[in-house]
Specification:
The chain has a seven-stranded mixed sheet with strand order 2-1-3-4-5-6-7, sandwiched between helices. Strands 8-11-12 form a three-stranded parallel sheet, covered by helices on one side. Strands 13-14-15 form a three-stranded parallel sheet. Strand 3, helix 3 and strand 4 form a beta-alpha-beta unit. The chain is α/β, with parallel strands linked by helices.
């Protein structure tokens, strides 16, 4: 038995070269720590780390016995580089990793340890759920050195034999069925220090996923099962978090399917009470239950503007859904849910993935048309990624001729005490049914959907186009096709730059990616926020901050050309665009909050009445003079102040694009109320 506590450093690292505030509490290693302390008490001394610099400093001050890293696509490289330094300087330290960026098959284990010299760096890998396997490892390290432990299998742990280099793995797949036996990282105080930095609290109310989607590894890693923490524990954690959170107004649920059980409505109501008592959370983000349909509506209605009901479809094409083993809820249910949420004043949307097996250019266009026709107020479009350990990373790659390239993961780069690191993701660039040219076709189209529809900057214009019986997807395609050759210099440059960067962000090899971003000039551009990052968000804010007026004029001309009969459409289109311009906050101002002041103007249409009617009637039926007051309420001012502080960067575009990922979208706009025209 060891005579002193085993010193353990656990790291859930994220790159904070740009900022600290765009990340979540290290809940995962909080669970590992709490479970380990429960079993071993004073035999272990555990510290948790979120940022690379903090871990590097701690390693200089004290050499631990064990360093553990949570391993994901956004931190795999920095984990490896710090682990390599640990091994070089203190080879007796046991290096452990765990997380979903791992293929738990025998071939996958061998491949992982043999990549980039990992078997010389990483001693043990905890596969799937980590609490019990890590405790078994700790029990072994309290009695033996790491080399001895690597000679025999440990359940839940993969390693390689120190002499032969052959993979050794214990029994995999065991789960903790009674998750209540895992102490709460919040209620035990294990995460208290992280309330002092601008991180986003994240809470887990259930664990696991029952679905078998081939593009995801979560169901596989959980054995397609779900276990639930007690309501009492969840309520206590939420109260604990609400009382202590001062540097963010956002809350995130880690659940794979929030709303999968009726009790989640109780949780939503409890959050509503916290909002009234503490003013927190202002925004709640979660992965909604995939097939609950109407069962999630009341939750969305309860949370109101604090949340958006996102019913992930990925595609509406039957062939594609069959290929990825996806079973969506029915069309009529989607339409009913969308209507109920809209009538309650909420937002309902979906997530789509372009480049899935079986998807074609035509089928993805049809999916986009379906989403608009079904009343989806938010249509979030992703490029398919190939995740290690998922079915798409194995059989599907051959069956569907999936070709991939490498892209820098958003904000996942940095230099820390001489250690420079870049994280990358593998994205699908072509399949047997969709060419790379087809995928590039959708890139600017998805950007315009985000700018004009998802974030509501041009939502009323799109609604107007639909009330005229015209297809919004065709209108957006027209905007893209005309954009690069626009006679307006700011617009042609905007579209040309977007197309150029959408192609330049992909690299044939990871080595090519590192060489490009490692160039001193390009690395400085990354740090300044002028390169990298999610293109849709970066170009959305570039548009709103540098050429909002020119873009609005371009949209107006394209809309009138697309609709035809200028005499009929010119007045409502111009009025809509003027209203939309006044409704949005001017983020191009040098001092956004100082410029956020009440104002009013008169219009020829009652846009709010039209919206309350769910746009089921043409705008001409609402043609009456109305004065709108555009108010700057104090709660929105405070919310923006908190967010801009949490996501502070010297480049305002970086601040805005990062804070808009989770924020309450209404905080981007004035509060509008009508008044008598007199």
């Amino acid at each position: 038995m060891s005579k002193r506590p085993l010193t353990i450093y656990l790291a859930d690292l994220v790159h904070n070269q740009l900022m600290d505030g765009s990340y979540m509490f290290p809940l995962n290693i909080g669970f590992i720590s709490a479970y380990c302390k429960q079993e071993f008490g004073d035999q272990v001394d555990i510290r948790l780390f979120k940022f690379p610099g903090d871990l590097i400093d701690a390693l200089k001050n004290k050499t631990p016995d064990v360093v553990g890293f949570s391993n994901y696509v956004w931190n795999a490289d920095i984990n490896c580089r710090i682990a390599a330094q640990v091994v070089r300087e203190t080879p007796e330290v046991a290096v452990v990793m765990g997380g979903p960026d791992f293929n738990g098959t025998p071939d996958g284990i061998s491949e992982w340890f043999n990549q980039d010299g990992y078997k010389e760096i990483v001693d043990f890998y905890s596969v799937f759920q980590g609490e019990r396997s890590f405790n078994r490892l700790v029990a072994g390290l309290l009695e033996h050195d790491k080399h001895e432990l690597r000679r025999s299998p440990i359940d839940g742990i993969a390693t390689v034999h120190p002499d032969t280099g052959e993979p050794i793995v214990g029994k995999l797949g065991e789960r903790i069925k009674d998750v209540e036996t895992i102490p709460s990282p919040y209620l035990t105080g294990a995460l208290d220090e992280f309330f002092q930095v601008p991180l986003i609290p994240i809470v887990e109310t259930n664990r696991g996923c029952p679905y078998k989607c081939t593009f995801c590894a979560q169901g596989l890693s959980s054995g397609y099962r779900v276990e639930f923490f007690s309501e009492e524990r969840v309520f206590a954690e939420l109260e604990y978090v609400a009382q202590r959170t001062k540097k963010s107004n956002i809350l995130i649920f880690a659940d794979a399917n929030f709303g999968i059980k009726k009790r989640d409505l109780k949780i939503a109501k409890y959050i509503k009470g916290l909002q009234q008592e503490y003013g927190y959370p202002r925004r709640v983000s979660m992965n909604w239950a995939k097939n609950r349909g109407e069962g999630t509506v009341e939750i969305a209605q309860t949370l109101g503007m604090a949340s958006q009901l996102i019913l992930s479809m990925q595609s509406t094409d039957a062939q594609t859904l069959d290929a990825v083993k996806r079973n969506n809820i029915g069309t009529k249910t989607y339409q009913k849910v969308a209507r109920l949420v809209r009538e309650a004043g909420g937002d309902v949307g979906t997530e789509l993935i372009v480049g899935l097996p079986g998807e074609s250019k035509e089928s993805h266009l049809n999916t986009l048309r379906d989403c608009f026709n079904w009343g989806m107020g938010i249509i979030i479009c992703y490029n398919a990624l190939v995740i290690r350990g998922s079915e798409m990373d194995q059989a599907d790659r051959i069956t569907y001729k999936i070709a991939t390239k490498h892209r820098l993961t958003d904000s996942a780069f940095g230099e820390y005490d001489g250690i420079r690191s870049f994280e990358s993701e593998r994205g699908v660039r072509s399949t047997s049914t969709m060419s790379e040219k087809d995928i590039y076709f959708f890139r600017p189209l998805h950007w315009l959907i985000q700018l004009m529809w998802n974030y509501d900057f041009y939502d009323l214009l799109i609604q107007y186009i639909m009330t005229q019986g015209r297809d919004p997807v065709d209108f957006l395609i027209k905007l893209v096709e005309n954009g690069e050759n626009s006679s307006i210099p700011a617009i042609s440059e905007l579209f040309q730059d977007f197309q150029r960067e959408s192609e330049a962000e992909w690299f044939d090899t990871r080595e090519d990616l590192i060489a490009f971003y490692g160039d001193p000039e390009n690395f400085q551009k990354l740090k300044d926020g002028d390169l990298g990052g999610k293109l849709n968000s970066r170009f959305m804010w570039r548009t709103l901050m540098t050429c909002a007026s020119e873009f609005s004029g371009y949209v107006e001309e394209c809309a009138l050309e697309y609709l035809g009969d200028r005499d009929e459409h010119e007045k409502p289109v111009k009025e809509i665009l003027r209203y939309l311009s006044l409704r949005q906050i001017d983020f191009s101002a040098s001092d956004v909050l100082a410029n956020f002041q009440d104002r009013s103007d008169e219009f020829s249409y009652d846009f709010q009445a039209w919206e309350r009617a769910c746009f089921d009637r043409k705008i001409g039926e609402f043609a009456e003079p109305v004065v709108y007051r555009f108010k700057a309420p104090e709660d929105r001012r405070e919310a923006l102040s908190t967010l801009m502080s949490q996501y502070k960067h010297h480049n305002l575009v970086v601040t805005l694009r990062k804070m808009s990922e989770y924020m309450c979208f209404q905080d981007l706009f004035y509060e509008v109320e009508s008044a008598d025209p007199s």
